[in-house]
Amino acid sequence: MNSKLQNTLIIIGIVAIAGIGYYLYEQNSVITLQGNSVDNTKAVETADFLQRLNELKVITLDGVILQDERFKTLVDSSQVIVPVSVGRKNPFAARN
Fold first, then answer.
1. 74: which DSSP letter?
2. Backbone dihedral angles phi then psi of residue 90, each to the nearest 5 degrees
3. How far is Cα 30 from Cα 36, in angstroms, rounded to an integer?
4. pLDDT in tens, 44-69
5. How many domains does the chain have?
6. Can you tell me the distance from the alpha carbon of 26 to that of 32, in angstroms, rounded to the nearest whole number?
7. 27 — phi, psi (to 5°)?
8. Cα–Cα distance list, 96 to 25, 35, 90, 91, 93 (Å)
9. C-beta separation of 51 from 58 below 8 A
């Protein structure tokens, strides 16, 4: 093989290996960025949760509403639920 041709092929091989390495490096950084986007989503959700929690902490409850006459005149209209067995006996159960 001619030495010029051999040198050209070696240079083309080095450039190709460098190009593949750069491509793989860029793909790795894209995957890392996608992983960070999930973390950023969780961070935004956490910040939203903490903001709502702080809003709820400001609320104070007192028993004044329980002393109101309108509350005292409420009537309980709930009905008693009688427990009933669900389903039927297992037809495949062993008979004694």
1. -
2. -70, 115
3. 10
4. 899 999 999 999 999 888 888 888 88
5. 1
6. 10
7. -65, -40
8. 72, 61, 13, 13, 9
9. no
Give a yes or no: residue 25 inside a domain: no
CA–CA distance, 56 with 50 (Å, rounded to integer): 10
pTM exceeding the 0.70 threshold for the entire prediction: no
Phi, psi for 22 (deg, rounded to 5):
-65, -40
Q: List, in order, residues 6 or more apart from 71 with CB less than 8 Å away.
A: 65
Domain extent, residue 41, equals 34-61
Question: To which residue do tokens 């008979």 refer?
Answer: 95
Does the residue 1 lie in any domain?
no
Alpha carbon distance 83, 96 (integer Å): 28
